[in-house]
Amino acid sequence: MGREHKKHKKDRKRHRSRSRSSTTDSDDERRFEAKGKEQKRHKKDKKRRRSPSRSSSADSSDEERRFDKNLEEQRQLKKAQLRRQKEEMKAKETPEEKKARRMAKKMQKDEKRRAAEAEDTLIPPELNYTNLNNPFNDTKLTTTFVWGKKLEKEGRSGLTQDQITKEASQRIRKNLTEAAEFKRIRDSRAAVKEDMEMMKRDADLRASQKTDSKEREFQLDQVKERTRIRIDQGRAKAIDLLSRYIRYAGEHFSPTASPDFELVNPIEYIRTTCKSIDDFEDLLEDISTYRELDGRERHEVW
User: Fold this and answer.
1) Closest by alpha carbon to 98, among 108, 109, 107, 89?
2) Does pTM top 0.90 for this prediction?
3) What SS3 string covers the chain?
4) What is the pLDDT of residues 202-212, one digit of tens each?
5) Which residue has the higher pLDDT, 191 or 12?
6) Which of 74-78, 151-155, 169-173, 251-255 has the highest mean predicted lDDT (pLDDT)?
7) What's the pLDDT tens digit per position in 52-97?
8) What is the C-alpha separation between 243 and 220, in angstroms, rounded?
9) How far apart are CA 261 and CA 245, in angstroms?
10) d(C-alpha 230, C-alpha 41), whole Å
11) Contact 269, 245 (CB under 8 A)
12) Mean of the pLDDT values across residues 268-293?
């Protein structure tokens, strides 16, 4: 009886374990199916999101193609219009205008050809050197020197002769441009230096003129003082009386600075004071001195 009971217990345990395993398997299957459905739903949502962006990119590409097409059509129309205008102008022009147009076109072509040749040549045209006329006595001056070892060391041994010539020409033009820039800077500095020296000379000249004017004023004051002293001492000369007569009519004459005197004809001063030829010579020298010191103020009077 006890054995049967134990056996019945074991059978129930096995049944429970089997039912549990079957339920777990069924749960796993349901989870897997739900996960698969969820992934499919996500894929559908992604497709729905991508479809508008693809349509927008297609629309933008269509717009670009239409814009390019319209632009090309406008260019063609403009070219056709210019062509018609050119043909109309040719049909209306006179033989002289036709000849002038052809000459201008020919000159333009020649200028382009010369520019292309100058671009290809090694020696720039401003140097004006040839193989027979150069200061280096080099008969191969226009031939490009190829430094093979240097090119090989730099990893440029595969350059062609035209490429090497073009690089050499560009290097020479660069050096000439730098030299011209240095010359311009040097000339500008020289011009600035010359301007500074000129300004200094002008300042020195103004200072010297001011000094000269002060010196003339001092000398004139000394002459006037000597004149006053001689008049006060009663030994006045002809120049003293003449200068007093002239200064009396001047703007800066001060009556209080000198005593009263009687105005007499200046000729009378000369007659009474100049008794000999030496006196007349002294008078002429004094007059020249006064003319020099007074400047242009009383030049006509003297």
Assistant:
1) 89
2) no
3) CHHHHHHHHHHHHHHHHHHHHHHHHHHHHHHHHHHHHHHHHHHHHHHHHHHHHHHHHHHHHHHHHHHHHHHHHHHHHHHHHHHHHHHHHHHHCCHHHHHHHHHHHHHHHHHHHHHHHHHHCCCCCCCCCCCCCCCCCCCCCCCCCCCHHHHHHCCCCCCCHHHHHHHHHHHHHHHHHHHHHHHHHHHHHHHHHHHHHHHHHHHHHHHHHHHHHHHHHHHHHHHHHHHHHHHHCCCCCHHHHHHHHHHHCCCCCCHHHCCCCCCCCHHHHHHHHCCCHHHHHHHHHHHHHHHHHHCCCCCCCC
4) 988 888 888 87
5) 191
6) 74-78
7) 555 566 677 888 888 888 999 999 999 999 999 888 888 888 888 8
8) 11
9) 10
10) 134
11) yes
12) 76
Q: Which two tokens stand for residue 216?
A: 């003339």
Most confident among 21-25, 89-93, 143-147, 194-198 (mean pLDDT): 194-198
User: Vertex 111, ends 105 and 117: CA angle to 5°?
Assistant: 140
Token couple for 150: 């240097």
Among residues 215, 278, 268, 204, the alpha carbon closest in space to that of 241 is found at 268
> What is the share, in percent, of the chain residues with pLDDT greater than 90?
11
Alpha carbon distance 3, 296 (integer Å): 162
Q: What confidence score (pLDDT) does residue 264 get?
A: 64
Neighbours of 223 (CB within 10 A): 18
Instruction: Give the number of residues written for the chain.
Output: 302
**Tokens of residue 88, six digits:** 């109309």
